[in-house]
Amino acid sequence: MALAGVLVVLAFRSWLTVTGIAVVLLAGIAVDLLRAAAIRPLHLTRSGDTAVRLGETATVTLSIANPGQRTLRALVRDAWPPSAGAVPARAAVMIPAGGQAQVISALTPTRRGDRIAAQVTVRSAGPLGLAARQGKHVVPWTVRALPPFRSRRHLPEKLSRLRELDGMHRSLIRGQGSEFDSLREYVPGDDVRSIDWRGTARQQQVLVRTWRPERDRRILLVLDTGRTSAGRVGDAPRLDAAMDAALLLAALAVRAGDRIDLLAMDRRIRARVMATPRSDVLRAFTAAMAPLESELIESDSGAMASAILAHARQRCLVVLLTDLNPAALREGLLPQIPLLASRHVLVLGSVADPRLAELAAGRGKPSAVYLAAAAERARTERAAMAATLRRQAVTVIDAPPATLPPALADAYLSLKSAGRL
Questions:
Q1: N or C, which end of the chain has less CB nearby within 10 Å?
Q2: What is the pTM of this model?
């Protein structure tokens, strides 16, 4: 319309024409503003998913009710943080008087944690499309992005090994700490040392004892959220890989009939899951770990050791997921190891950087040789620290992110089969 007015002005070339066209435009704008549906009376509500695993898609529905007397022609912007991955960013709606419409947003978060919806902006246009009213509504909603649990694919294999240890085959050889299971009749080839002479005397037939791996043992999983967990390995921080390993271990321990608790801390406790029913352990672990972020502070190893001893008063398996950083461990956790190892069975899981092996193999040019020397020194120092911990009866697992979860699960099964829990 303004362009058409310019053509008219060029044709008549008078201030009266300019004034007349401006009046017409202003009148059209005024009519549009008066005829545009009001924004404040709109009633907005949300429904849909409140949690989603990282990498998957959640759906949130925004319902808009128009209680007014005019048709709502609007452009709606449902604002979310960029890491929520919400699409579409804007949606056009037309809602008749007394009607209702829905705007569906698909969220694919790229980071763990809570994604909180921002304000909903509605731009209500008039019938001529010359002007629009704009207003905002606050419609609270939170979608929690949970850890992805990529190591779930290893669970069937570990459960198969667990069934071999526990459910499908009973052992005639008693491991240290194994539990008595039942008596059965002796068959040729059985170990004569497993004969139960009292039962044999009562039943007047030769009976042998069978054993099974221990059940109802306690596991305390300690997640270090200090500065060393913030280091990125590949495209994710070490903390995310440690969480993946923790979830696989929790799922396996629940199936094995053991109790597992979670403690996440640096200088203070960030998350705690204690005495949870076995059916809810995995859900509770996932919910507790979802909002955790690495804190750029040095972890207090003394406070961590005190928390472990306070929460685990009886002997149990303590799995500590932290970085095998020689400098941090030497000044922090290493002095606490003798006390913890005297009371508990210790396993230390660490996320190794596969990039170190690639750098250590570089020989193409002088700069690559220097990088190779630095990488080799870092690997040597980590290996030396691991050897120091093993001499103090600590089981050390230093593996890349993809192999840490199954390696930690294998260590747990080995300890269980040996009756050391």
A1: N
A2: 0.80
